[in-house]
Design brief:
Bound molecules: iron/sulfur cluster
Number of helices of chain A: 4
Largest sheet of chain A: 4 strands, parallel
Helix content of chain B: 25-40%
Strand order of the largest sheet of chain B: 2-1-3-5-9
Radius of gyration of chain B: 22 Å
Distance between the termini of chain B: 54 Å
Radius of gyration of chain A: 15 Å
Order of helices and strands of chain A: EHEHEHEH
Shape of chain A: globular
Strand order of the largest sheet of chain A: 2-1-3-4
Order of helices and strands of chain B: EHHEHEEHEHHEEEEHHHHHH
Structural class of chain A: alpha/beta
Number of strands of chain A: 4
Structural class of chain B: alpha/beta
Strand content of chain B: 5-15%
Number of strands of chain B: 9
Largest interface: A-B, 24 and 34 residues
Oligomer: heterodimer
Largest sheet of chain B: 5 strands, parallel
Helix content of chain A: 25-40%
Chain lengths: ~140, ~325
């Protein structure tokens, strides 16, 4: 059952050097993408504790987006490699917890890829609309 | 002067925590000399109505083990809270939800179906399940209501102190009891154990290489673990880095990796997420495919990361059941 009026709330954790800069670029380039994402800037995606993602879901976020630099481009050398492994394990845990792993999406988006950023967020919002509201969402 | 009154109670418990009290051996005599035990269902005969008749806060301390999973347990722990000055969550089940808390991957309906129908030793052709109230010609029969979700003690009542462990080791129990009797109370919320992680006192810590890298995850029953080397460095999951120390490395000394029964260290709210992070950092995988491949070797992440702490984790239970 899909609610036509459902506007997903998405928390975005994005690294300062790549994906957050890409979001800025998307902004200054006036690219259109849905306003469902609440961005949080991190120094590095590798600094993102898995518990923050769980907390966002527990508080009712319909999706969590994590953006980091492409492999080899991390400002701190290996942060994004850590993110990659953590999210892989976290997604496996989420599946066992009965939460669709597609609610957590990891993408590598460089500072130059404003269009990829806008396209990815558009796609993610559509995917979350299909999944429907987070089952953990508390009644308003 | 009258001896201080002490209550011991069990909720959803395996009895191991009761056994741990008995395991105090001669030390238990010191305790029994010093206090007046007014409730201990496993060992002595008492009536709940006698507790109900006591003035509020007339019990010095109630030690409560087991997690809370039905209405009777909820009722009694609330009663004990009202009648006690101090409440101690005794053991991993009361502290974190414990092993019974793993039932939070299911709900009452699924659990009843398994326990009262599907197991091979059950014959139940009329699908009779426990009911809170059953009417019979002679009157009403009642049973406690079984809840969908298992809770830790502090998710049900206010808790003053925690004695961690499955079960708590005798030296910590004695330390806890003597501290409380001394009247020199630690800050509320104290977990009576170490403030450091298990790894810090683990005798195998020194065998860890400078840079730990594991290429595969081995399960403890599939390998013969080296009795000297750090389990994690050998690719065997050991929750030591995300677990509070103070148990005396009981499992490690028996050549078994830690499963986390002492719960997380002070700063950590979610033991499983903390461990997940630590584990990910030592895995050798540089592409998405490699990460997926080694992740497949982690069988049952809930059972491994939250063996004792699912009810007190951020997500608390499996969703959608
Ligand atoms: S903490 Fe361990 S020993 Fe104590 S009741 Fe729970 S399962 Fe049993
Ligand atoms: S990971 Fe386990 S075996 Fe290794 S040092 Fe920590 S507690 Fe000891
Ligand atoms: S080694 Fe770990 S699981 Fe074993 S008693 Fe100590 S804290 Fe508990």
């Amino acid at each position: 059952m899909m609610n036509e009026n459902f506007e997903p709330k998405i928390i975005g954790f994005m690294c300062k050097w790549c994906t957050y800069a890409a979001a800025d670029l998307a902004g200054v380039s006036r690219l259109q993408y849905p306003p469902n994402i609440v961005p949080i800037r991190l120094m590095c995606s590798g600094g993102l504790e898995p518990s923050f993602i769980l907390k966002a879901l527990q508080e009712g976020a319909d999706g969590v987006f994590i953006g980091g630099c492409h492999f080899g481009d991390c400002h701190y050398q290996t942060g994004n490699y850590q993110t990659n492994k953590r999210i892989a394990i976290l997604q496996k845990l989420l599946e066992e917890m009965g939460i669709d792993k597609r609610r957590v999406r990891l993408e590598w988006i460089s500072a130059a890829e404003g269009t990829k950023f806008a396209r990815t967020i558009k796609e993610f919002v559509e995917d979350i609309k299909k999944l429907g509201p987070n089952p953990l969402k508390k009644e308003a | 002067m009258a001896k201080p009154k002490v209550a011991l109670y069990w909720c959803a418990s395996c009895g191991g925590c009761e056994e741990a009290v008995v395991d105090l051996a001669e030390d238990i005599l010191k305790v029994v000399d010093a206090v007046d035990i007014i409730l201990w269902p496993v060992a002595m005969d008492f009536k709940y109505k006698d507790i109900e008749a006591m003035p509020d806060k007339s019990i010095l301390v109630s030690f409560i083990n087991g997690s809370v999973r039905n209405s009777e347990q909820e009722h009694i722990v609330k009663l004990l809270r009202q009648k006690s000055q101090l409440v101690v969550a005794f053991g991993a089940c009361a502290h974190l939800g414990g092993i019974p808390g793993l039932a939070n991957v299911a709900n009452r309906k699924e659990i009843f179906e398994t326990a009262y129908k599907l197991t091979h030793t059950t014959v139940n052709p009329n699908n009779v399940y426990p009911q809170p109230v059953t009417e019979i010609p002679q009157g009403k029969l009642t049973l406690p209501e079984f809840y969908d979700t298992v809770k830790s003690l502090d998710q049900t009542i206010d808790v003053d102190y925690y004695l961690p462990g499955c079960a708590p080791p005798p030296d910590l129990i004695m330390k806890g009891v003597l501290t409380l009797l001394s009247g020199n109370l630690p800050p509320k919320g104290t977990v009576i154990a170490s403030e450091k992680s298990l790894c810090e006192t683990c005798p195998r810590n020194k065998t860890k290489p400078d840079k730990m890298v594991i290429k595969e995850i081995k399960r403890i029953h599939e390998v013969i673990a080296d009795p000297e080397k750090c389990f994690l460095a050998e690719g065997i999951i050991c929750v030591g880095p995300a677990t509070r120390g103070g148990c005396g490395e009981r499992c490690i000394n028996a050549n078994i990796p830690c499963r986390g029964c002492f719960g997380p260290t002070k700063e950590v709210i979610d033991q499983g997420a903390k461990f997940l992070s630590a584990l990910a950092s030592i895995i050798d995988a540089n592409t998405e495919e490699e990460a997926k491949k080694i992740t497949e070797q982690i069988i049952d992440p809930i059972g491994l990361f939250y063996m004792y702490s699912l009810p007190t984790s951020i997500l608390r239970r499996k969703q959608g059941v």
